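Appendix B, Record 12. Input sequence as logged:
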Amino acid sequence: MSIPQLIREARLAQQLDIDGLCRKTGVAKNHLLDIEAGKGSSFHTVAYCKRAVITVAEALGIQQQVEALWRDEDWQAVSMPTRLANLSEPSNTMLPAAKADGEPGRRWLPIAGILVLMTAVGIGLHRMDEADVERPVAKSARSTSPATKEGAPATEAVGPGSGVSSAPQAPDPSQLLRADVERAMQEWARLWNARSALDYSGLYSREFVGVEDHLRVRSQRMEQAKFIQVELTDLSFRETGPGEITVRFRQRYRSDSHQSEDLKELVWRKTPAGIRIWSERRVN
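Logged structural output:
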């Protein structure tokens, strides 16, 4: 049995729908749908995908079975270079048709050879014309550029024929930060459910106002509770400053001694040590 089948059957056995599993684990709904479909396309990395799958498996009580079946290659999306390589493969539909007796239509071969030769000659002449045009233009640009003064070095323009390849476009920093915060929200809920006070406190910045009192109360609750279940839903992310993202969400908290439901906000900021929580508040 595959991992998606195991997770789906365990979810149904516990009478959970996708939304219920989302609340139970803190894993986003689109990720859960991908996991049950056996796809990793909504995840940024295979490691991130595995982390979400194990979180779900742990909540459903099938972690050991899932870890035994896990293979990175099962969840790796097809890359764009691979798709382009597949598209560039030659197609047999462009070859001459065979005669009824199985011999190739040889009468087409001379025509095909002439067409190929004419195409090659045309491309060669076109490139020679481009080279003749580009050389004087480049020279003229260097001699008339207002930035070129006596004694100052001339600057060559980088273009398609310059032989200098442009650097690949860097990923959008805000998108990378958003992905980091999504992962951190899942980890925050997981550590709270696991009552791992030390690791949980490591997600908070020392610049958080009143952080010591805040974490002392949380640690006491984790120590005293027999169980804690935190479910996050309706998460929304917005960039509220350079290197800062505010997450608003609905939190359902349940333990053996307390239950609550609140609309909350966490402010995450990028620091040299990673992203950390700078503030936490109830909105309602």
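The chain has ten helices and four strands.
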